[in-house]
């Protein structure tokens, strides 16, 4: 078995940062009416700026694959070229097309040479799953290097025009033309961007991060879907898939919009997060004093105090000064968030050899959690 190191990290955030007051300029007004939920949601998540791969007219400036390629391109230099790449592993919840895979579309833009591809589909954990594929490939000796990515392009999915048919349908039924909170909620939470790591079997440069271990958990066997798209939740908790709806329903009910069962999120995301993290730390005999930097991906600052309290109650008291987050300034970029947070820390000049970093990524899709423990080399 071989050691695995993150030797370089890069990010790509499209265009200029978008303030809270500018959001509806980019995403548009549903039914020409400002969202009543926007200010409440932003007050809770505390995000003050984010990035969109669209202009103010709603036109795309980048595809997801282009965002990913632009992040990856920054990993290539005189010491490591695109021609040396062996594995490309890409995670996203918002691929540009259903098929071919996201990794294949990114590889098509790189135009380097034949490489092994892996595409991880899911929500926030898809980026960590992509990382684990690269980690295990190098760990086993199957490859000497890998590039792993997390990326999202959700702005076009959140555009007001995507809900026009549903509004028209509601009016024809003489119902209030208001989009359900489960759909409106995520319009003020999610944004675009990409992050990329270069993994190698030897450390390189002034700062490398050795991946000591990675762990993942799923509670789908006992909990129903919480965040979903391309279907509609039924009364019994099952998801009716998009291909069981008529094309008219796809438009009239915004079937492909991203939805969040907020009550389910509030009930389970923290307890299951605390449970899984404690199990991961216990398995590897890691105590809070062996964590110098804690990078939790949180969708909203609303959850930070609850997570801290829940961990403390289980004996995992990570001091507040060890928490490292950049949600406020870059927004919630789903699978890319943990990449972009670690990239900022890795290139900050703060890290010292021997320090240890814990990455924590929850996914509310059907409650999955992923962790990685790193040592600065």
From TrEMBL:
Residue ranges occupied by any Beta-ketoacyl-[acyl-carrier-protein] synthase III C-terminal domain in the UniProt entry: 281-360
Biological-process GO terms, alphabetical: secondary metabolite biosynthetic process
Residues forming coiled coils: none
A single MF term (Gene Ontology): acyltransferase activity
Keywords for this protein: Acyltransferase, Transferase
Protein name per UniProt: Beta-ketoacyl-ACP synthase III
């Amino acid at each position: 078995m071989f050691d695995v190191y993150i030797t370089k990290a890069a990010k790509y955030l499209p265009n200029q940062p978008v303030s809270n007051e500018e959001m509806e300029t980019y995403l548009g007004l549903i039914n020409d009416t400002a969202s009543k939920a926007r200010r409440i949601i932003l007050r809770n998540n505390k995000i003050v700026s984010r990035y969109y791969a669209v202009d103010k007219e709603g036109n795309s400036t980048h595809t997801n694959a282009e965002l990913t390629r632009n992040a990856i391109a920054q990993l290539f230099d005189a010491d490591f070229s695109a021609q040396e790449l062996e594995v490309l592993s890409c995670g996203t919840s918002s691929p540009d097309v259903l098929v071919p895979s996201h990794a294949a579309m990114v590889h098509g833009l790189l135009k380097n040479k034949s490489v092994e591809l892996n595409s991880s589909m899911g929500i926030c954990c898809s980026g960590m799953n992509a990382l684990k594929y690269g980690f295990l490939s190098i760990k086993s000796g199957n490859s000497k290097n890998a590039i792993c990515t997390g990326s999202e392009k959700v702005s076009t999915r959140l555009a007001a025009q995507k809900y026009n048919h549903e509004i028209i349908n509601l009016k024809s039924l003489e119902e209030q033309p208001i989009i359900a909170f489960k759909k409106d909620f995520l319009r003020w939470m999610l944004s675009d961007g990409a992050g990329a790591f270069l993994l190698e079997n030897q450390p390189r440069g002034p700062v490398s991060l050795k991946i000591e271990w990675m762990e993942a958990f799923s509670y789908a066997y006992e909990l129903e879907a919480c965040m979903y798209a391309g279907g509609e939740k039924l009364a019994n908790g099952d998801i009716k898939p998009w291909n069981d709806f008529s094309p008219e329903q796809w438009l009239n009910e915004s079937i492909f919009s991203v939805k969040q069962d907020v009550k389910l999120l509030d009930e389970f995301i923290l307890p299951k997060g605390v449970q899984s993290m404690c199990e991961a730390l216990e398995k590897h005999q890691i105590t809070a004093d062996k964590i110098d930097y804690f990078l939790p991906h949180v969708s909203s600052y609303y959850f930070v105090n609850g997570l801290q309290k829940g961990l403390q109650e289980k004996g995992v008291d990570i001091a507040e000064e060890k928490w490292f987050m950049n949600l406020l300034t870059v927004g919630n970029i789903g699978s890319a968030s943990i990449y972009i947070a670690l990239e900022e820390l890795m290139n900050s000049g703060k890290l010292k050899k021997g320090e240890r970093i814990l990455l924590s990524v929850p996914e509310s899709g059907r409650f999955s959690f992923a962790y990685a423990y790193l040592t600065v080399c």
